[in-house]
Amino acid sequence: MRAVVIHAPNDLRIDNFPDPAPGPGEVRVKIAAGGICGSDLHYYHHGGFGTVRIQQPMALGHEIAGVVAALGEGVSHLAPGMRVAVNPSRPCGVCLHCSEGLHNQCLDMRFMGSAMRMPHVQGGFREHVTVDGSQAIPIAERLTLAEAAMAEPLSVCLHAANQAGPLMGKRVLVTGCGPIGALMVLVSRYAGAAEVVVTDVADAPLAIARKLGASRALNVATDVSALDAWRAGKGVFDVLFEASGNQAALRTAFDVMRPGGVIVQLGLGGEMTLPINTIVAKELQLRGTFRFDREFELALRLMGEGLLDVKPLISASLPFDNAVKAFELASDRSQSMKVQLTF
């Protein structure tokens, strides 16, 4: 079969790739749609992120959905022809953190399209993937496979919302309006937030945020005082979802958080210097959020029941053999929110 494989920065190829038959407990899925994630773009432009670097050719992609093509021995909950989303996480299930129910913290995690371990875990931008049967989740009849491929980023945001705690009636600030920031707007509204303000440095993603239910969508590049209205007293926002990974965005947000407010850091942009005195004086709570666990199936259920509509985020779909063009398009925030490959 063919796959979208990264060899080095800016060296993305369509390669021939092994297509193993499913073994016991496994399932082969014919991939239909795959979303290009920010981490895929880091591999494409820089060969990795942080200390993680490509050391061997690796198929990219972890936001994928398709149709069951074949079953291995012992798989009884699926059937050929079923439409499924593929959960890219495969925790070991036996380490300390898995035994505590913290599967996203697994010590031996195999996450599709990741160069964090050697050999690398191959990704899902392939014509077929063979995965453990537990990773293929059937989807509702009403969902398109393009929507189903949005389950992974949506589950990241649902996990972040869980980290924040109840959002009913809260004032929420989202800094950074890429796909994750935009989905946080959607999730916050669904969770009952009374006000959701989102900031970014580009107009195009902010326009989508407004369609998704943002109370206000502010360009802080063209208006440096855009958040001044929320500085009253010691600040008014109850919860911050920081999705940009930019230190300036986080630092500015500290000034508009109310005492006791919760800061959930989603964006990864390297090490940051934090205003510890402000955190102490305002008794702010800084919380991390990493990937997801049970939220993957929740994401599919919420979309399948029509409770969350992710279609406005899908800005383009291109055939996978035009992967370079698709990755360049996905890199242009003035044109794209979520670009998907079709297989």
How many β strands by DSSP?
A: 20
Shape: globular
Task: Give the biggest beta sheet.
Answer: 7 strands, mixed
Written as H for each helix and E for each strand, in order along the chain, the element string is EEEHEEEEEEHEEEHHEHEHEEHEHEHEHE
Strand content: 25-35%
CATH architectural arrangement of the largest domain? Alpha-Beta Complex
Low-confidence spans: none
Summing up helix and strand content along with how strands pair, one would put the structural category as alpha/beta
Q: Which radius of gyration do the C-alpha atoms yield?
A: 20 Å
Q: In CATH, what is the class of the largest domain?
A: Alpha Beta
The overall average pLDDT, rounded, is 96
Percent of residues in helices comes to 10-25%
Domains counted in the coordinates: how many? Answer: 2
What's the tally of helices?
A: 10
Under CATH, the homologous superfamily of the largest domain reads Medium-chain alcohol dehydrogenases, catalytic domain
The N- and C-terminal alpha carbons lie at a distance of 11 Å
* CATH fold name of the largest domain: Quinone Oxidoreductase, Chain A, domain 1
Describe this structure in words.
- This protein is an alpha/beta fold and about 350 residues long.
- The chain is globular and about 65 Å long.
- The mean pLDDT is about 95.
- The chain has 10 helices and 20 strands.
- The strands form 5 sheets. Strands 3, 7, 8, 11, 12, 19 and 20 form a 7-stranded mixed beta sheet that branches. A 6-stranded parallel beta sheet has the order 15-14-13-16-17-18, sandwiched between helices. It has a 3-stranded antiparallel beta sheet with strand order 2-1-6, covered by helices on one side.
